[in-house]
Amino acid sequence: AHTARSAKIMADKAPRRAFGTSRKLFPLDLQKKNFEMFRRNKTNVYVAEYLDPVPYSVAWKWQKDLVRERVDKAAGEDMLIVLEHPTVYTLGRGSSVDHVKFDEKDTKLELHRTERGGEVTCHSPGQIVMYPIIDLKRYKKDLHWYLYQLEEVVIQTLDKFGIEGTRDSEHTGVWVGNAKICAVGIGVTRWWTMHGLSLNVDNDLEHFNHITPCGIEDRAVCSLSSLNATTDHKTVKAGLFSAFEDLFNCKLDKAEFEE
After folding, report:
1. Cα–Cα dist 29/38, whole Å
2. Which residues are known catalytic residues?
3. Is-contact 224 156, C-beta < 8 A?
């Protein structure tokens, strides 16, 4: 069960400001002096869930601000941003523009190069995006382990709906048969994470025609909708949240919104 907090989140404010009240539970000096507490007990992770699509540039700035603040202070609460984006294309830090099939200088399509790993992907309404802002020192200082855990969150969620999700030894993400249903790409600064995963639920897969998804020529993309599975976002998120809590041994503390 997820415990509701009284904290009110303003939809037009960055999560780092909205979650200020949680510092009363985890003041900075307590985090520094009793660091082992997080290893023995379940870590609280504060969830900022946005129901309306959030522009990519806005959510990207939130992530960078949150990580910068935590790195500068060498402490801070873990967070999980959950949202959807208007249609946008993103490149990883080493991505090749050869996999982009439109002229980025002469198009209305939005494209960003980011600091995450991985190749080009697409976000659009109907896709659930999760951005964990967590301190891996509280879990395990191993990026391969972290990527595996993110993939496992999705694999376990799909299993709840009778879908077998698998990994590919050469590419990150989660697959159903020969088609990719979830992209995973992360950025890490001093063990603080940003970016994360995007699960195709009922988004328009036609948007992927403008790119070579994840730079893989001979693989398709799929969604829960295309697999005739549930497309109820509340149900899918509940599965993701449950798997995240189990795999990261954490307790999600879901905040309420104030419009």
Report:
1. 14
2. 214
3. no
